[in-house]
User: What shape does this take?
Amino acid sequence: MELTISSISKRYNKEKYGLKDFSLTIENGILGLLGPNGAGKSTLLKIIATISRPTIGSIRLDGHDLLTDPNYIRKTLGYLPQEFGVYNNLNAFEFMYYIAAMKGVGGPGLKKRVESLLEGVNLIEAAKFPIGTYSGGMKQRVGIAQALLNDPKVLILDEPTVGLDPEERMRFRNLISDFAQHSIVILSSHIVSDIESIADKICIMKDGTLIAKGLQHEVIKTAEGKIFETVIDVALLPHFKLRHQIVNISHQKDGVRVRYISETTIGNSEIAIATLEDAYLFLTHNHI
Assistant: This one.
């Protein structure tokens, strides 16, 4: 499958844009969408999900115009919005059957499908209790399960790991990795490590624009030679923070080890191997 986004903009008023001349082609696999708050990630995902319309531009799935025929994607879409609402009086089984009815999913295999998905998100033991008694992380897992219910060909997940503990994050990554072999998965998150561990391709946004895209190693390469580490006296740290973009700080016996971004080396600094987080910080802080 191929999703083609061509020069879309979302304009709210004369001065404010949610997206500006955004173009991207997405194929099967997992696309990790990164960007600071207000970058336009959720706006983009709502447009792909046909919940919102762009001011200008076009979006096509395998050549079909989704602005004139939104049902073409809706019947094969799985969507977990950033703000996911549930019916607290229903239990997980009841909620999944309700979503199935809304999506037109049925047949003799539905019961097994629901049980398999709830098992996949580790909710089968709690599935008969009202969702109102669930923790935030458990409700998020219900949201993940419902997004997968119709075996979608396009899966959109907006901040899906919010509220999940490390074990559940790992379970989520395994579930989505298997699913993405035959589908387009777009995963938006502000947690770089979640994207780094699962995404095939990376897209970085800022202020409604696309500032970087490519395979993960291609995006990381943009920060190569610009990431350094050095050890300084703890008393010098406030001054160092004022002058340099710091990525990480760790305290040790002989001072403070500082990882920072710079175009040139400073003092006795050593060049460090760049990571996706380094590249993300370098690109979003240095893009004008």
